[in-house]
Amino acid sequence: MNIDAAYLVPLPVVIPLVTAGLTLALWRVPKLQRLFAVAALALMVVVGATLLVAADSGALVMHLGGWDAPLGISLVVDRLSALMLTVSAFVLLCVLLYSLGQDIADGAAEAPVTIYYPTYLILAAGVSNAFIAGDLFNLYVGFEILLAASYVLLTLGGTGERIRAGAIYVVVALVSSVIFLTGLAVTYAATGTINLAHLAQRLPEIDPGVSLAIQVLLLLAFGIKAAIFPLSAWLPDSYPTAPAPVTAVFAGLLTKVGVYAIMRTQTLLFTETRLDNLLMILALATMILGILGAVAQSDIKRLLSFTLVSHIGYMVFGIALSTRTGMAGAVFYIIHHIMVQTTLFLVVGLIERRGGTTNLDRLGGLAKASPGLAILFFIPAMSLAGIPPLSGFLGKLGLLQAGVQFDEPLTWVLVAGAIVTSLLTLYAVVKAWNKAFWQAPTIELPQERLPRTMVFPTGMMLVAVLGLTFVAGPVYGYATRAADELMDPSVYITNVLGGTS
User: Fold this and answer.
1) Residue 500 belongs to some domain of the structure
2) Domain enclosing residue 24, as ranges
3) pLDDT at residue 219 greater than cutoff 50
4) C-alpha dihedral, 437 to 438 to 442 to 446, nearest 10°
5) What is the pLDDT of residue 309?
6) Which of 19, 117, 227, 477 is least enclosed, having the fewest CB within 10 Å?
7) Within a domain: residue 170?
8) Could you write out the DSSP letters of every residue in 236-272?
9) Are 328 and 401 in contact (CB under 8 A)?
């Protein structure tokens, strides 16, 4: 292990937390708030990229306070967490730039909501903490940081609709937290530890029924956060009410933290008591019912919220296969979906600004009025639908190949369900494209041009979506190596319990 690189492990959490305090102290100086917030997230991207390279040579472990595992708090960055840290930092930076551009365009640059920047940075710290947590309690803390910050961001503006949606979100999140905390307590009572590496050794030694109960509790908690059917009804009602930048970062990242937690615990802790068939059924239901909900929508925000739910099913499909190829496909698809879903919600913010609404029955004529906006929507929408040769096609192809290789009746049903979901996704986004961009407008479009300060970060995300297609080979190779680590828990255990900090 590279000792120098190991000291970078806590930085993705420390940087945004320290900067959050600094921006809160500078609430009277919004220009400095913006400067420090952007600088912090840019630095997180650099740190994430450095960890991405370093982790490819072996997992990095930091034992805080000099207390070795399992007694102390361990922070762990392996290939999977390094990939998630880097992508999430880049997305957080782009969305922050978008929100700053929106403030400038609205004339609010000198008097923004002062709590926005500290809260956004705390959200970034919560996301990073969840990805590097080496024990269940630290993972729980990461989720609670996310809950506190996301509730504030969701209700910014204080409108009745946002408060209502925020209340639903908080109730659901608190239920998930209570289930998680219960699972954590049962785990400690049964094993005497909450360190993930130590748990991987202890869980096979306890009563199988207790182990199964722990697994079900954790799956319930993470399934709510990941919006897996039937625990996903809250999402389409909560996300569309938030401001465009908030919706974009929620859609891109927050559900993936839940998926990451499922992936980590299923591959590390429950290798002997697997619930793969149940996960496959849930994946199929999530894909099909989610996309049917999307097809029925007439509002583009709700349509994309339902596609968000639906495509979580693809990731769960890869996890449920419990094979190297399935896990690699799931890792790649997570990265693809973070990029594409964030870009689409940023574009929807531009559509609402240019067309005055997100209701597809009232939109129209945007292709002629704003050709650049049409391109910004079309490319990520086609990637979401899985049109070759875009990254969505490559991710789905990898998952379908893994399902075919598994060659069981249930996986063949899942393969068929995944293809149907992809076709219905294509239908849903083409419907949205036709109504928003091609049909004759039913209302007079505002003559205001789209602010470059908002178009530029959206363009950055679009370049990243296209870039993922062009560098799919190296990224898929890294995802495959991450899958190799996940499928061999002894690597993680040795790094945390047998390595040095």
Assistant:
1) no
2) 3-492
3) yes
4) 40
5) 94
6) 477
7) yes
8) HHHGGGS-HHHHHHIIIIIHHHHHHHHHHHHHHT-SS
9) no
